[in-house]
């Protein structure tokens, strides 16, 4: 089969033989193979290509659970340098993905490794279906999925690779080039509540950005050694070790891949705007597509006209389809170039020493971090901000922008990098204006306050929702992590919680 053939230019077989020969001396042939392959590629000045990989689908996947069929997804990696995770296809043994992955400046000797897994709801570990490895040579590929026992066949996978020579001057190798995909995850605390009318407050988003290494190059933001909460997290004592364990356990719960996750792709300004739409839970307690929202008569409406706003006809507008005035906490990860964020008042921040460390999975450094919020702009430039907006204006009749900052005590990002941050996000949010301001800028303070005031006055947001809090009967994320045995029981002083 074409997918099973090795690239004739690949050095992998040679490297594996060398690794086998010295296995008894080194004790780790796999690591030696990777190092040797990298050295050979550098010495041979191996040509690079830009790849467009389309993962089509699979068939013949075995049923692993007693009840139901399977909820398959896959994880693809190129030489362990760059990776992507697919959507989960529910209740099928013949999943169809048709998902595209673009990666630039990949050595022609590279290998594509794909692992296929079955999402196991309620289990910390998903079932392993099988894997396969193939070259990055162009063409359609039909590859056998190899199972864990005696290379037993676990089905067939179809994909197609297009390849073009990389441009000069050379870019960083294994450069992710899109599409800009994101996933949305509901906090595990949301399932314990009833009559919840703001699902966004219990969601986290993970979005993979293009060009982070080009814009930021070798610049990272280390944790702030002068910040008390950061000292509590990243210290060397037993207490800090326990705090880190709790944060990492909480992060895993928040960003777990599930069949209830939402997925999307950013291609236009309208796609960016849709990220900020307010939503409600449907009767099943799951955030659905546009066709699965609650009936209009069950949704909150607004007919107010804000002071000094354009006087237009007042109409009842379902707020689930409107941009929500809210402030978000974000980090840009140093691990995988993803942007991770949630509403700043999310309840799952309770009991955690740092919002940003929770999003960053307790990493000692990030690319950048802070807060952001959407705000409206008049198309003629007459005004900017929520203070001059009213719900009688359809969202489509005004321009929108993201105002982003460096408001993070945990990592204390360098304000000199704000122009770089702005350029990166404008590149990833096509047609959408981005403005980056320092956390001490008076315009930023005024804009944040106007955003929150509008939410309080006209969108039914309560003051307590602006800060992390627990509703009656709700268990904190930290308590769930302790209950699951992921972290020893501990107490965090209120003074250690990031404000």
Automatic annotation (TrEMBL):
| Span of domain C2 | 31-149
Matches recorded under InterPro entries: C2_dom, C2_domain_sf
Q: Name one Pfam family in it.
A: C2
Mention one GO biological process in which this protein takes part, according to its record: positive regulation of gene expression
What top-level branch of life does the organism fall under? Eukaryota
Instruction: List the PANTHER family.
Output: C2 DOMAIN-CONTAINING PROTEIN (PTHR47800), FER-1-LIKE PROTEIN 6 (PTHR47800:SF5)
Q: What is this protein called?
A: C2 domain-containing protein
Organism equals Lentinula guzmanii
